[in-house]
């Protein structure tokens, strides 16, 4: 008597990996090179060959991880399948790493955001200096303001669209013209 094993709905990637697998009812292994599979209760035993070009990298990665090959492969599968680690210590380490990253972002400011808050006088001066150099391009001016280290009013990085909108506000164009003439 032969049967096709069924895999749970939560294992779509694994079911694609093990296509056309047939096991005998007596539990003997049916061999499909390079894959040997035995089904035991809810776990799955998989044996496969590692390509020669990956052997050294695989061995080094396992050695550096401090775990055995099985644990390393299971971790890699969980990562590939986007499933959380069921080892509480590993989950705690991952959480601590995320918290350290968040703390570093709070201490050093958001990555990619200029460090200084909006200062209209300085921003007007940077714009005026850039225009005097013959560079009246929104993209270039936004880049210069970012290089000077100043955020927008909303605390963001300047870009050409934000610069254009800022320039159209109230009397900003008049202030820019005045700064260009007087400096």
Spell out the blueprint of helices and strands.
Elements: E1 2-3, H1 12-17, E2 23-24, E3 31-32, E4 35-40, E5 43-48, H2 52-65, H3 69-80, H4 88-108, H5 120-132, H6 138-148, H7 160-168, H8 172-182
Antiparallel strand pairs: 1-2, 3-4, 4-5
Helix pairs in contact: 5-6, 5-8, 6-7
| Count of individual beta strands | 5
Radius of gyration: 30 Å
Q: Spans of 5+ residues with little confidence (pLDDT < 50)?
A: 1-40
- Kindly report how far apart the N and C termini lie: 93 Å
How many structural domains are formed by the residues? 3
The dominant shape is elongated
Helix fraction by DSSP (H/I, runs of at least 4): 40-55%
Give average pLDDT, whole number: 74
Count the DSSP helices: 8
The biggest beta sheet is recorded as:
3 strands, antiparallel
Task: State the order of secondary-structure elements, H for helix, E for strand.
Answer: EHEEEEHHHHHHH
Report strand order across the widest sheet.
Answer: 3-4-5
Beta fraction: 5-15%
Structural class: mainly alpha
């Amino acid at each position: 008597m032969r049967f096709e094993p069924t895999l749970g709905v939560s294992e779509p990637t694994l079911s694609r990996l093990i296509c056309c697998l047939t096991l005998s009812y007596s539990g003997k292994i049916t061999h499909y090179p390079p894959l040997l599979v035995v089904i035991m209760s809810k776990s799955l035993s998989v044996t496969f060959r590692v390509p020669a070009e990956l052997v050294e990298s695989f061995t080094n990665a396992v050695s550096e991880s401090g775990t055995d090959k099985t644990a390393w492969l299971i971790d890699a599968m969980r990562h590939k399948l986007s499933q959380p680690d069921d080892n509480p210590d590993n989950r705690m380490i991952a959480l601590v790493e995320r918290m350290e990253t968040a703390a570093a972002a709070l201490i050093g400011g958001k990555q990619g955001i200029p460090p200084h808050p909006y200062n209209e006088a300085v921003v007007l001066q940077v714009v005026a200096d850039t225009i005097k150099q013959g560079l009246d391009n929104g993209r270039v001016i936004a880049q210069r303001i970012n290089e000077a280290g100043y955020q927008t009013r909303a605390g963001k990085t300047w870009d050409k669209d934000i610069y254009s909108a800022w320039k159209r506000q109230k009397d900003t164009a008049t202030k820019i013209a005045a700064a260009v003439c007087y400096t």
